[in-house]
């Protein structure tokens, strides 16, 4: 999982990733083929809101629907746990992720300038989990 997050330019340390497994509010879903991890998604469910923290797919397994499937499953579990909305942030210019989240029903609700360490802007997106798409 750490290798995949590094490939995807996700600024999480190994320690941060490992800490996710100890959090009660954290949901982690992993896509595997054989002994190989192909991708994963991590979300937090807090006070009726699902926060999508990380979504990443191994470079050689991208564009095969794995990212979409992981996100859809997380949203389904989050909704089942009683969450009524889902939030996420992504780096401006990450067009693949932006399209994926848009197809999954997320809309842009704001921007945070210079949010990332390198000065990139974050785009905030939200989805109402009470509406059927
Ligand atoms: C964003 C990310 C998770 C998408 O994962 P993915 O598994 O490639 O996602 P999908 O396969 O569901 O969709 C990606 C594209 O493949 C296309 N696709 C899906 N299945 C396909 C198939 N069988 N044949 C051809 N194309 C396909 C989708 O239509 C989509 O096309 P688009 O980019 O033109 O809209 C991946 O690119 C990644 O790990 N990026 C780095 C980390 C990152 O940016 N994470 C998101 C922010 S936290």
Automatic annotation (TrEMBL):
Record-linked SUPFAM superfamilies: Acyl-CoA N-acyltransferases (Nat)
Record bears the keyword Acyltransferase: yes
Annotated N-acetyltransferase domain residues: 1-130
Keyword terms: Acyltransferase, Transferase
PANTHER family linked: ACETYLTRANSFERASE, ACETYLTRANSFERASE YPEA
Designated name of the protein: G10406 protein
Organism for this UniProt entry: Coccomyxa viridis
Annotated gene: g10406
